[in-house]
UniProtKB/TrEMBL annotation:
Alphabetic keyword roster: Membrane, Mitochondrion, Mitochondrion outer membrane, Transmembrane, Transmembrane beta strand
GO cellular component: mitochondrial outer membrane
Record keyword 4Fe-4S present: no
Pfam (any one): Omp85
Compositionally biased tracts (Basic and acidic residues): 15-25
InterPro entries assigned to the protein according to its UniProt record, in alphabetical order: Bac_surfAg_D15, D15-like, POTRA
Region (Disordered): 1-34
Protein's name in the database: Sorting and assembly machinery component 50 homolog, like
Biological process annotations from GO: mitochondrial respiratory chain complex assembly; protein insertion into mitochondrial outer membrane
Location(s), subcellular: Mitochondrion outer membrane
PROSITE patterns for this protein: POTRA
Topology versus the membrane: Multi-pass membrane protein
Residue stretches making up the POTRA domain: 46-126
Length: 470
């Protein structure tokens, strides 16, 4: 009998531990009476007669039918292996299985066709309760994260998660419920209940948010969309006795109820070290029409273009921008404004220390733009090529940007003129380290230029860590 075991279509290793097989077992020697059938399977069209799933406990079979149905459309043995591999990845993506193995066998029984195949997925479900401990890197901050998860709560890939995070600037805990649409995992709903306490030393401000949110994610063509409603009770206070009067004036309680929409197109081959592709993301947020005492319209966008050059070097260009428009005659809140500056945006300046300020406290702005041009190259002489050395890049950069408040009684030309005044910019070079595919560290030598009165600069070596960089 011809039998194929496979967990992936990657080249087989010398030892079969990763695949759960030994290479010699990939195709067992057929018995004499099966030789003709084996030859048919290898060289002719085949028919997948049965697809079975073994090892199910609390998982509902109707959920998995959407993920594996494409295997029935395979027309050749290679096609069966490819489609089974894709189906295996789709099953693992659900986050409810610890392991999935695939068994491809010739059909048997009275209804067996000469070219018939049976495909069996052997699954191992994740435990009902799992825990996790890890560290997380944010924009120039780090945190320790403890989590408890109840995966596959009702048998259709639902997930209930409790998470506690303690960081250098932020402490939070929250409860979230995740529900994907069967057969369309990218279309999902998330409900959140949370409390977040953060410190913002550049503004001498501390903020405690208690809120609920509902978030719907779905793809549409080549775009990805997120619709979100958030209701949050915000408590603002002074971080130090030396806080400016402008910050003290913002202290107190407020209630924000906002709806937002984010659309993005991402063709990059990597989120951290892309060598080709582009990213475009635009976000709109409207507060005040669904309750609360915060009222504004907020728009911001992000654009990134990447192109590979010679000798594995990459040229990258980025552009950010945004505008906040207060409505109903209410001034904007310090917690809703934009902030700019630091190792993750305009390098060579202190963290969020560009723009309007009062007595040394930075108040943010209602409009901003920032651009960057970067050249990434491998390390000189390529140490550790093909291994640890590929996590590093040499980095040359030119950044510029501005943050200000606008008089909305003036026209667009006056707004552009205001944004073009007092441009801060910087240039420099450094080393970049990739942390997985979610974050990176930078150690740069920066030369800030266009410094304005009140700006806080970092002339020389600057360290940065984060998940989003200009």
């Amino acid at each position: 009998m011809g039998t194929v075991h496979a967990k992936s279509l990657d080249p087989l290793p010398m030892h079969g531990r990763d695949l759960g097989v030994h290479p010699d077992d990939l195709i067992e020697p057929p018995e004499q009476e099966q030789e003709s059938k084996q030859e048919i399977l290898e060289n002719k069209d085949v028919v997948v007669q049965h697809v079975n799933i073994e090892g199910l406990g609390r998982t509902k079979e109707d959920l998995l039918g959407y993920e594996i149905s494409d295997v029935f459309h395979a027309k050749s043995l290679i096609d069966v292996m490819k489609r089974a591999h894709v189906a295996r990845l789709r099953l693992l993506r659900l986050g409810i299985f610890k392991d999935v193995e695939v068994l491809i066998d010739t059909s048997e029984g009275t209804d067996a066709l000469p070219n018939g195949l049976d495909v069996t997925f052997e699954v191992t479900e994740i435990k009902r309760l799992t825990g996790s401990y890890n560290t997380m890197v944010g924009n120039n901050e780090g945190s320790m994260v403890l989590g408890l998860k109840l995966p596959n709560m009702f048998g259709r890939a639902e997930k209930l998660t409790f998470q506690f995070s303690y960081g250098t600037k932020e402490t939070s805990y929250g409860l979230s419920f995740f529900k994907p649409q069967p057969g369309f995992f990218e279309r999902n709903l998330t409900l959140n209940l949370y409390k977040v306490t953060g410190q913002f030393p550049w503004s001498s401000l501390k903020e405690t948010d208690r809120g609920v949110s509902a978030e719907l994610n779905f793809p549409l063509g080549v775009t990805s969309h997120t619709l979100k409603w958030e209701g949050v009770w915000r408590e603002l206070g002074c971080l130090a006795r030396s806080a400016s009067f402008a910050v003290r004036e913002e202290s107190g309680h407020s209630l924000k109820s906002a709806v937002s929409h984010t659309v993005s197109v991402d063709s990059r081959n990597s989120a951290i070290f892309p060598s080709r592709g582009a990213l475009f993301r635009i976000n709109q947020e409207l507060a005040g029409y669904t309750g609360g005492d915060a009222s504004f319209l907020k728009e911001d966008f992000e654009l990134q273009l990447n192109r590979r050059l010679f000798w594995d070097s990459v040229l990258s260009a980025s552009l950010w921008g945004g505008m906040l428009y207060p409505i109903k005659g209410q001034p904007s809140c310090i917690a809703d404004r934009f902030y700019l500056g630091g190792p993750t945006s305009v390098r060579g300046f202190g963290m969020y220390s560009i723009g309007p300020q009062s007595e040394g406290d930075y108040l943010g702005g209602e409009a901003y733009w920032a651009g960057g041009l970067h050249l990434y190259t491998p390390l000189p002489f390529r140490p550790g090529k093909g291994g640890f050395g590929d996590l590093f890049r040499t980095h040359f950069f030119l950044n510029a940007g501005n943050l200000c408040n606008l008089n909305y009684g003036e026209g667009p030309q006056a707004h552009l003129q205001k944004l073009a005044e007092c441009i801060r910019w910087s240039y420099g070079a450094g080393i970049v380290l990739r942390l997985g595919n979610i974050a990176r560290l930078e150690l740069n030598y920066c030369v800030p230029m266009g410094v304005q009165s009140g700006d806080r600069i970092c002339d020389g070596v600057q360290f940065g860590a984060g998940i989003r960089f200009l």
